[in-house]
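Run log, item B.
One chain of 292 residues. Sequence copied directly from the ordering sheet:
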Amino acid sequence: MSEAAFQKPESPEIALRGIETRDLTPYVGARIDGIDLSRPISDAVFRAIEDVWLRKQVLLFRGQALSEDDQVRFAELFGPLNRSHMTKPHHSKTNNAVMFVSNILENGQLIGAHPDGEMQFHTDQCHQPRPCSGTMLYAMEIPSSGGNTQFVSGYHAYETLPEDLRRRIEGLKAVNAYDYEHGETRSTFVKEGIPRATHPVVRTHPKTGRKALYVNRLMTACIEGLSPAESEGLLMTLFAHQERLEFAYEHVWRPGDLVLWDNRCTLHARTDFDASQRRLLRRITMIGEAPA
């Protein structure tokens, strides 16, 4: 869906500071204008931003000129950051909270992770016991077309399920795994040694109390306690329901865009793009909770 017309901000604190918000779709996403994130913000402004984030799940800030330190400072307001304690080519050499998403080669080596191609809908780190609570991407170089990020709401997906299907999945748990050898494709067979974690099919957000459908096409391998055929049939039904693009926000990136999403209640996917064109984004994630 395209961006909607400007609406009056719902938060008095935002209004007092000349900041404007508008919904990107009725279901997910809001754009916030009138704030320069290269400068520290007050506690009151942060609380107002966080309120919009918890309600709309995905935030877009356009036209930002951010250093690594600027991005880290803003991200830390949302909680402790995941930091790499290993030297990896796709992490910043000066800040271990920053990872690059890029297809750019330097000295014959990729400088970023997830370099190219389409990526199926997923939630970040769901193969870990404590997936990240949020993900923040800042765009620096963008191809002329493609490489868009699509977002859907796990809240909306759960709340629009037929009642009998909601009853059917109540209390079920799913195995989530990421096989790095297969790249951006799902596998129903989870080999030994592959990172995996079991989480509820429906999780409750720790701050809003709302329920979200928490399975995804990229990394949810199977549902515990069901036969392979029953598990796969149920998952295909859930995937098709949550991925309906008429309920999605598709973000067309521009350099200077900062996008923050709540990983506990959204899914995202990437569209394909010309691999010969450069793409470079900075990624930061916040430490999350065990889904419940």
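Observations after the first pass:
- The chain has six helices and 18 strands.
- The longest helix spans residues 228-242.
Flagged for discussion on Thursday.
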